[in-house]
Amino acid sequence: MKKLLLGAAVSAAFFSGISNAAITLDPSGKPVITPANTDEIYLSGASAPRAFIEQLITNAAVPDVNQICKPATTIYKYKDNVSGGDQNAYLCELNTLNPALSGLAAGKTNLLIYKRSLGGSAMGVNPIIADAAISFMKIDNPANCSAPVVGGGLSTLTCTYVEGNLAFSQNQKADFGVSDVDPIQFSGVNTPSGFAGVTNADMAKLNVKSAVAQTFGIIVTTKLREALQQAQFPATSTCNPTNAGHTVTARESAACQPSLDSAQLASIFTGSLVSWSQLKINLASNLYVNATAAGIQPPQDRIHICRRTNGSGTGAQFGVKFLNYPCAGAAASTPKPDTGALPEAVAQTQVHQMGSSGQVNECMSELDAGVNTVGTAFNNTYGFRWAIGIQGTENNATLSSGYRFIKVDGVAPTLQNVVNGKYKDWVELTYQSNKTHVFDPSELNIVNEIIKQSGNPVVIGVTNNPAAKHTWGQSGFLAVPQSFVAPANGVVSLTQPVNPLSHGTTTKAPNACRAPATYNPGVAGGMQLN
User: Fold this and answer.
1) Which of 55, 211, 382, 410 lies 20 to 30 Å from 90 when distance is taken between CA atoms?
2) Whole-angstrom Cα distance, residue 124 to residue 46?
3) Looking at residue 153, what is its pLDDT?
4) Distance between CA atoms of 390 and 218, rounded to whole angstroms?
5) According to CATH, what is the number of the domain 216-416?
6) Nearest residue to 448 via CA among 240, 209, 182, 263
């Protein structure tokens, strides 16, 4: 969470350049971390906005006064050697061009932000409530990390990370956390291992602020996307993979994006449906049998799900939006849990719970390609299979992973559809800190600025494009109406996107179980009818 919160602000602040006078390098070219002149911030929680953070870090369009890191200086990124996104850290010179960061009492010149995404959103909630130490990557020993590699606006080092091994990890209290949904949702199956569910008494211990609305989407492996296109478009359409005109441009277009409805998704993710053959086509066929286009039908029709572990905000928001969990209490359905080594011959859905969004990418890509070589978090012993999952829409705009986003209830996950009230799978990210947490001098100022800049619509606009600019439309993040005014005409501005809708009201904090509605539109504001 803490990293995510930081992420948004850090993203806004990070900008890579050439010179680097304040950070000392050792003979191998690795940065020397000096606590005496470095503010160290720890952020834990949601992994879904990682791409958003990366774009904020490297995007030159972010105004100098909004950045956290000094413009035109080298920014060092540290990534773990497991997925590259479970644990990260960012080292840079502090940006004194930002008025909020100029003349800080501590007088330190450098900034080091640790971001833990492993374990997802609940790691930005439960440890914050307990003010408890959790594991972060240890990067102050140069031997743990590779030499930096320049690319993508960052100088990146890959570091060995082994949770619980203090040679490669460190136990620290997160200064703040970030979650994909408000903290009260992290109870029941949304509670991470080792923690209790969040109560109203726990909420009283937190400072909570909503800063960004995030759009989520349903993903399917690329070959399953092709099968859905064959089932949902006639053979005369270029959207159908059996049509000679089914080019890359056609298959990736908005017009050819297939859809599953909410009842189908609830049936799949609860394990009620166990094979793709149970999605019927007319009287005599089904999705699996119908997939006759070359190379798209797997050897088995078992449903595979790549989804996040308990404690993930990505999973928690899916429960709210599609299963009414935990909103309906004991009456709500719950997602099918991880099935471990369950043989495929058993008539059950195969569920693979992954610790981060990067690991979900790995699971989907390996099943789509029938390989076991993308990463080490998922062990693909099945070969080529169709799979389905959930991701933030800031993922895979480059189409580099083996999955694609689909429509839900016939509606694409675009920002315009969110703002129009047509697309339902979005929630408000929240940032939280413990009211009794002790900050080092000046660090609270830095945390507050990170939170502030994470919600700036100018920052969000430049990070959505290209991070969430898909072939089917613009998706990603929006500023929240509690902090910024949405356009009165209800049309989203892609350069400075603000959501007119909220799960909160002028008197109540956001709660994802509350139906979204326009937030304080006044007499002139509103939303689009069509």
Assistant:
1) 211
2) 7
3) 82
4) 5
5) 3.40.190.10
6) 209
Q: What angle do CA 253, 255, 259 make, to 5 degrees?
A: 100
pLDDT at 8: 37
What pLDDT does 15 receive? 36
Tell me which residue of 120, 117, 86, 87 sits closest to 192, measured CA to CA.
120
DSSP code of 13?
H
Q: Which helix (H) or strand (E) holds 502?
A: strand 501-502
Bridge partners, 397 (sequence order)? none
Cα(50)–Cα(61) distance, rounded to whole angstroms? Answer: 19
pLDDT, one tens digit per residue, over 328-340 is: 999 999 999 999 9
Predicted model pTM: 0.86
Strands, E assignment, 355-472: 387-392, 403-405, 407-408, 426-434, 469-470
- Tens-place pLDDT, residues 219-265: 999 999 999 999 999 999 999 999 999 999 999 999 999 999 999 99
pLDDT of residue 13: 39
Indicate the burial class of 17 (C-beta count within 10 angstroms; 0-12, 13-18, 19 or more). middle
**Which DSSP helix (H) or strand (E) runs through 136?**
strand 133-137
- For residue 295, name the pLDDT band (cuts at 50, 70, 90): very high
Within 8 A by CB and 6+ apart from 404, the residues are 219, 220, 222, 225, 252, 396
Q: What is the pLDDT of residue 61?
A: 75
CA 338 to CA 310: how far, in whole Å? 10
Contact 446, 481 (CB under 8 A): no
Residue entry with tokens 């099943």? 367
**Closest listed residue to residue 390, CA positions, set 413, 418, 421, 417:** 413
What is the C-alpha separation between 396 and 108, in angstroms, rounded?
A: 37
The strand ranges marked E within 46-118 are 73, 76-80, 87-93, 110-116
Q: Could you tell me how many helices (H) and strands (E) the chain has, helices first?
A: 13, 26
73-73 and 16-19 beta bridge pairing:
parallel
Q: Specify the amino acid at residue 237.
A: S
Angle at 267 between CA 263 and CA 272, to 5 degrees: 155
Cα–Cα distances in angstroms (integers) from residue 73 to residues 9, 39, 104, 278, in the given order:
17, 17, 20, 56
Structure tokens at 485: 């005014």
Q: Where are the domains positioned within the chain?
A: 2-215+427-467, 216-416
